[in-house]
Amino acid sequence: MAMTTRQGTKTITMASALEESVPGPVTQRKQADSGRFRLQVDRQTKASYTTYEAAETAGLGIKKEHPLVQVAIYDGVESVNKIIELP
Question: Does position 21 have pLDDT exceeding 70, yes or no?
Answer without folding.
Answer: no
